[in-house]
Amino acid sequence: MANSTQLHPSMPLCFPPSLPLSITPAEILKLFSPGSILLIFCCGKKMVGSIKAANHHNNGYGLEEKLDELRTLLGKADGDPLRIVGVGAGAWGSVFAALLQDSYGQFREKVQIRIWRRPGRAVDRVTAEHLFEVINSREDVLRRLIRRCAYLKYVEARLGDRTLFADEILKDGFCLNMIETPLCPLKVVTNLQEAVWDADIVVNGLPSTETGEVFEEISHYWKERVTAPIVISLAKGIEAALKPVPRIITPTQMINRATGVPMENILYLGGPNIASEIHNKEYANARICGAD
């Protein structure tokens, strides 16, 4: 497997200009409606549907049916799991992956949910001490770590005898950007090529300042693809360009230009909300939007 640092940007790829098997963004909405979030899908300025998810999302009611429907629309055969990968493990990227894992992780033969983050980011001593306090204040988290034989490393980090890393603690459900909000354990991948090359749905959790660069690298891994993946961007920032005329560039445009994935396949999450509020099922409003 090639080392991602050895690759160089190339021309965008050319995919068929439509969602796979005529799937529409509204169909994607049926899957991404975890917890008590109100998700409203907008097509341009026209609202075409809404879902208010109930609090019973963890009991499996209706979830497997949603998953089966999406698998059928994407042409997934039995034994071939739907592959969803988050790219970037900031607060929003981690929460989105955790919500999906909480809801759909029980259907292991039908869906695979993973998240990519860069390796090597060390957790400083002050953060490790605070993390230890958070763990001990939550009985459910404490018991989970003990069952997973993972508690001792946090004790050692608290004492300064061990250095923790961001990808390591993310596997246990701790996002470095959001230590006080423990998530569920996540499947973490630190090799970008391994994470995205065969993904059916890619969730962009990168900031706008990094989106273009990372997706240019991803385009190398998608050269052999026949169909374009579906991309959902969580990035809320924008970038500016001066040539040929001054204009703003959105993360969805960056992804389209870097990879050649058609705009019809690229959705974005908008709305006034905070990642921790969404995860804690507090009142929040979020919209999944796509091109008209």
TrEMBL record:
<dbReference type="GO" id="GO:0047952">
    <property type="term" value="F:glycerol-3-phosphate dehydrogenase [NAD(P)+] activity"/>
</dbReference>
<dbReference type="Pfam" id="PF01210">
    <property type="entry name" value="NAD_Gly3P_dh_N"/>
</dbReference>
<protein>
    <recommendedName>
        <fullName>Glycerol-3-phosphate dehydrogenase NAD-dependent N-terminal domain-containing protein</fullName>
    </recommendedName>
</protein>
<feature type="domain" description="Glycerol-3-phosphate dehydrogenase NAD-dependent N-terminal">
    <location>
        <begin position="186"/>
        <end position="286"/>
    </location>
</feature>
<dbReference type="GO" id="GO:0051287">
    <property type="term" value="F:NAD binding"/>
</dbReference>
<dbReference type="GO" id="GO:0046168">
    <property type="term" value="P:glycerol-3-phosphate catabolic process"/>
</dbReference>
<dbReference type="GO" id="GO:0005829">
    <property type="term" value="C:cytosol"/>
</dbReference>
<dbReference type="InterPro" id="IPR011128">
    <property type="entry name" value="G3P_DH_NAD-dep_N"/>
</dbReference>
<dbReference type="InterPro" id="IPR036291">
    <property type="entry name" value="NAD(P)-bd_dom_sf"/>
</dbReference>
